[in-house]
Design goal:
The chain is mainly alpha-helical and 670 residues long. The chain contains 26 helices and no strands. It has one domain. It is a multi-pass membrane protein.
Length: 670
């Protein structure tokens, strides 16, 4: 989820306020990309892919890990150099440019764990999701199944993941320098990296690293302790602790002691966490219990808990309607803002002088710093012919290869996607620069509906899901690229080193993301709606693809009317957030965040709310300490949980079960 932030001006490299400093020396771009940096990037890429997969396969909320990547990159390289110094080996100085390159490489790598669709469109093709929806469900055909396999997943990643890097690289100067887009996450990461590489910043960074290590250890040890009580199956242990009572537990209202979700609550804005809790209360507190009373009237009373003709169908389709309403509103809003800003920029360019004269020493100093930033950013240019030929060449390869992996989608459909993709990538990158929201999944869903309906019943389900993957990969990667270019601009990093780092990180992600997913796939029961790894978006994406082919005939009774209400409500709530004053709109919930617990359950919303309460109290008690260390605490909790996934998966593969099953039931049976 994107964080809400307001940046009033460009963040400049730090300098002495008394007098304009001499321009900072910048190492050549080849020295910014180092062997130790790539080794650290690969290690962090594995860790962050594990974290992203776990979040994708459980709740589907992925917080921004850019800051954590910068902090952990700094920690590992500093540890590396300190260890070598003990043996008398002198290492090259660790610069902020190298730190930025590591962060960029890690983000490019773990970004594919999200845009690769391992918890959404790719998993929606498998046999488990097909069987979960039901073989007798209208439009759900046995031929529209493609089970995960390392071979085709890695191949698909390689043929679609690089195009986004070439689609907008020629516009980097326009987006970063001319339009001065803020890219709040990229700017915050640059501020963090810049602070690390100053004397006072290094001291704070060391304290943050120790804090991160402390909470990482606590999280890891806690998960290890929980494992001993988790028994066999999915009903034992602290993950099923009825902390709010057994009646509330039946409606998924309980605290499950998850460090990951508490960490997400510390990272995500308060309004996101409160929105998820509100969505949980509306759905599991009122809506689902009410619809359950209509069993035998609206739907047959003897259906299973995961039958789409019953309550389960209402859960999925109402979630889809809220998600689509929120996505459609934000898409229209960002396209409108993009067109408006471009028109304003052109109008101002025609009226204003080419050189803006600023009075006073402060204005001159600011201009000198900006000039140094601009010169560094432009110096190592990436030739437009390279970007153009790279995109065309990769598009040609992908157009020929994707139909071999998915025969349901013809070559001309893939080609048509690549013709319009750069425009959508520009809209998404521009919108991310304005709002910090990456709407790649929304563009992917639009492509899913269009191509599924275009192909029709003869293969439309798989074709829509594959087209979703093509669109998501391009628009998501392009937005991440521009976000990282903003970070590089503010840390005086060469665009060429950033681009090379993106290419290397993407190549690593094409291998690491499928391999780490395969670890989960081999060790755990992925897609079980009653298990730990529900993969909620797999069902949602397959249902959307079926809906694109079959229309509304597949919906349960009265479901269309309820879905229409929630779709319109999602649009209205978003409109209220934009038209009301800021002191009011900040209390209006976010529909996208509200929709997630509709399908998954209330337990993770309670965990995230605990995180936001801790953050709220911490801010009131000691605001500075909270600002300095809350990100490190959250990153430690999430990373410790992610690291525990590896030994947990190994124990599962070796069929070593926990020795104790901690289970709760009423003391007296009535």
């Amino acid at each position: 989820m994107g964080s809400e932030a307001e940046i009033t001006g460009p963040l400049l490299a730090s300098g002495d306020s008394a007098q304009a400093p001499a321009p900072e020396a910048v190492p050549p771009w080849r020295e910014q990309v180092t062997a130790r940096g790539l080794a650290v990037s690969a290690v962090l890429g594995v860790l962050f892919c594990l974290i992203t997969h776990k979040l994708n396969l459980t709740v589907g909320i992925i917080p921004s890990l850019n800051v954590a990547a910068g902090l952990l990159g700094y920690f590992l390289v500093r540890t590396w150099t300190a260890a070598l110094e003990r043996f008398g080996v002198v290492s090259k100085p660790f610069t902020k440019q190298e730190n930025t390159v590591i962060q960029t490489c890690v983000v490019a790598c773990y970004g594919l764990a999200f845009s690769g669709g391992f918890g959404s469109y790719m998993l929606a093709m498998d046999q488990r999701t097909y069987e979960l929806i039901g073989p007798d469900y209208p439009g759900n055909r046995a031929v529209d199944v493609k089970n995960p396999s390392l071979g085709w997943m890695i191949g698909f990643m390689f043929v679609v993941s690089f195009l986004g890097l070439f689609s907008l690289v020629a516009l980097r100067k326009v987006m970063v320098i001319d339009y001065k887009l803020t890219y709040p996450s990229g700017t915050a990461t640059a501020m963090l990296i810049n602070s690390f590489h100053t004397t006072t910043g290094a001291e704070l960074a060391d304290q943050q690293v120790r804090c991160l290590g402390k909470y990482l250890s606590i999280s890891f040890i806690w998960n290890c302790f929980k494992w001993f009580f988790s028994g066999v199956g999915d009903s034992c242990g602290f993950d099923n602790f009825p902390s709010l009572g057994l009646a509330a537990f039946k409606n998924t209202f309980y605290f499950d002691f998850s460090p990951t979700y508490i960490g997400c609550g510390l990272i995500c804005p308060h309004i996101v966490n409160c929105s998820t809790l509100l969505g949980a209360i509306i759905s599991w507190g009122f809506l689902w219990p009410y619809i359950s009373t209509k069993a035998g009237d609206w739907y047959p009373a003897n259906l299973g808990s995961n039958d789409f003709k019953g309550l389960y169908g209402y859960k999925v389709f109402i979630s889809v309607s809220v998600i689509l309403g929120d996505g459609l509103y934000n898409l229209i809003k960002i396209i409108y803002a993009t067109i408006k800003e471009i028109m304003n920029a052109r109008a101002k360019k025609g009226r204003l002088p080419l050189v803006q004269v600023q009075d006073g020493d402060e204005g001159s100093k600011l201009s000198a710093e900006e000039k140094h930033l601009n010169e560094t950013f432009i110096k190592d240019s990436i030739p437009p012919w390279l970007a153009g030929s790279g995109y065309i060449g990769l598009a040609a390869i992908s157009t020929a290869t994707v139909p071999m992996i998915f025969p349901q989608i013809k070559w001309y459909l893939v080609l048509s996607a690549y013709v319009v993709a750069p425009l959508l990538a520009f809209c998404n990158s521009y919108g991310t620069g304005l709002t910090d929201w990456n709407l790649a999944s929304t563009y992917g869903k639009i492509g899913l509906f269009i191509f599924a309906s275009w192909v029709g019943q003869n293969g439309g389900v798989i074709a829509g899901l594959a087209a979703c993957g093509v669109m998501m990969s391009i628009v998501s990667t392009a937005a991440d690229l521009m976000q990282d270019f903003k970070t590089g601009y503010l840390t005086l990093s060469s665009p060429r080193s950033m681009f090379v780092s993106q290419l290397i990180g993407t190549a690593l992600g094409c291998v690491i993301a499928p391999l780490t997913f395969w670890l989960y796939w081999s060790a755990f029961d992925i897609g079980n709606p009653d298990g730990a790894f529900k993969a909620p978006y797999a069902v949602i994406f397959r249902e959307m693809s079926i809906l694109g082919v079959e229309g509304f005939s597949a919906l349960p009774q009265h479901c269309l009317a309820i879905c229409s209400f929630f779709f319109i409500a999602s649009l209205v709530i978003n409109l209220l957030r934009d038209v009301t004053p800021k002191n009011v709109s900040r209390f209006i919930p976010i529909p996208m965040a509200m929709a997630i617990p509709f399908y998954i359950g209330a337990y993770f919303a309670i965990d995230m709310f605990v995180g936001t309460v801790i953050l709220f109290v911490w801010e009131r008690v000691n605001r500075k300490e909270c600002d300095d260390f809350s990100g490190a605490v959250a990153s430690g909790l999430i990373c410790g949980d992610g690291i525990w996934t590896v030994p947990s998966a190994i124990l599962s593969i070796l069929r070593i079960d926990p020795p104790i099953c901690m289970y709760f039931k009423p003391s007296v049976s009535s």
